[in-house]
Amino acid sequence: QCVKNxxxxxxxxxxxxxxxxxxxxxxxxTIKLRVKKVIAELKRDCPSEANxxxxxxxxxxxPDHPDKDNLDIxxxxxTIIGSKYDEFQNFDPEKKKIISKTLRYVAHHHxxxxxxxxxxxxxxxxxxxGLLGHLVFKTQLSxxxxxxxxxxxxxxxxxxxxxxxxxxxxxxxxxxxxDQWKQLFLSTFPQEAEAVLPEDPTKDSKYNESxxxxxxxxxxxxxxxxxKLQERKMREEVSSGINAEYGRLKVYHS
Length: 254
Description:
Blueprint: E1 8-13, H1 17-45, H2 47-59, E2 78-83, H3 85-88, H4 93-110, E3 112-116, H5 122-137, E4 154-155, H6 162-165, H7 177-188, H8 210-253
Parallel strand pairs: 1-2, 2-3
Antiparallel strand pairs: 3-4
Helix pairs in contact: 1-2, 4-7
C-alpha cells in the first residue's frame, strides 16, 4: 500500500560525469524491478488501485504525446537531481550538451522530473525546494521548462520530447535510442568502477565528519546504555515472575 505514496529522488553529481551513468542505470533498474513486483502484488490484491497508479503516471504525458508508445515509464514519481551545478556550469560547452541531453533523455524515457541544483545558488535552492515540496505535500509546482544546456536544466515529466532532445549519433550495435545515448555518454565519459561499500559505511574513514561523528558516537553510547537497561529490566521481570510462581507453588503444596 505504501507504493501509492512513494516518490523517489535520485541525485547525481554533475561535476563527476564519470559516475553519472553507472549511478543512474543501477538505481533506475533497481527501482524498476522493485516497483514492478509491488505493482504485480497490488494488482492481485486490489487491481483498481494498481491501475489507477499506472494511469496517474501516464496522465502526465497525455494521450497525444508523440512519444507515449516508446517510453518505459516507471509508475511512481521519480525526480533526478543534478547537483553541483555551480561547478558544472564551467564545463566545456560540448560536454555540458552531451550530459544535459543524455539526462533529459533518461528522465523522459522513464517518466522522471529533471532538475539541476546547487546549494550555492539561491534560485536553484528555491526551485528544488519547490519541486520536493510538491512531491511531499502536493503544493503548486513551477512548470517553467528550461532545456538550454548552458543554463540550469529544469524539465518536469511529460514536458519533454524526443524531437526536442534530438538524436544521438548513430552507433553501430546500438539497438535503441536509450542504448545510443548510453554509448555516446560512455565513450565521452568512461565510468569509474563501482566502489564496494564497507559493511558499515558510517565507519568508513573517507566520510569522516567530526561534528556528525561525535554526535553519532554519543547516540551509539546512549543506545547501548538503553539496550543494557532493557535487558536488565527483562531479567528482573523474568526473575520476579519465577519467584512469584515458586511462591504460589509452595503455598499450594503446603
